[in-house]
Design goal:
The chain has helices spanning about 10-25, 35-40, 45-55, 70-90, 100-115, and strands spanning about 5-10, 65-70. The chain is mainly alpha-helical and about 120 residues long. It has a two-stranded parallel sheet.
């Protein structure tokens, strides 16, 4: 099992822009919560808590990736690259086919060749 953790960090300015867009765009109104706007008053405390959490829970086996998330295309690129890197580190290969399995396959080929 490979564990990678991603903290998608949206800046305070971008969060404000997204909240205003949710308020100004009727089809995005459902995404808005007044509680989110009130919670912005605790921005510094949230950032300190996130930093503490990342610092205390990062390990070589399960690292954190703190990803700038103001631009969604860039966020997706960074996360995708980390996933590709993690998969590449596994040195994955197809299973070996041994002599007994080859004999079974040859028998299956003969059986299939009979038209049944």
């Amino acid at each position: 099992m490979v564990v990678r953790k991603f903290f998608l960090h949206v800046s305070k300015a971008e969060q404000k822009r997204r909240f205003l867009t949710r308020l100004d765009t009727p089809e995005k109104n459902w995404k808005f919560s007044a509680a989110d706007a009130r919670e912005r008053g605790f921005w510094k405390q949230y950032m300190a808590a996130y930093e503490d959490t990342v610092r205390r829970t990062a390990t070589p086996e399960a690292p954190w990736y703190v990803v700038p998330a103001d631009n969604k295309w860039f966020t997706r690129l960074v996360v995708g690259a980390a996933v590709v890197d993690a998969l590449g580190s596994l040195d994955l290969r197809y299973p070996e086919v041994g002599p007994a399995q080859r004999r079974e396959m040859a028998a299956a080929r003969r059986e299939l060749g009979r038209g049944r």
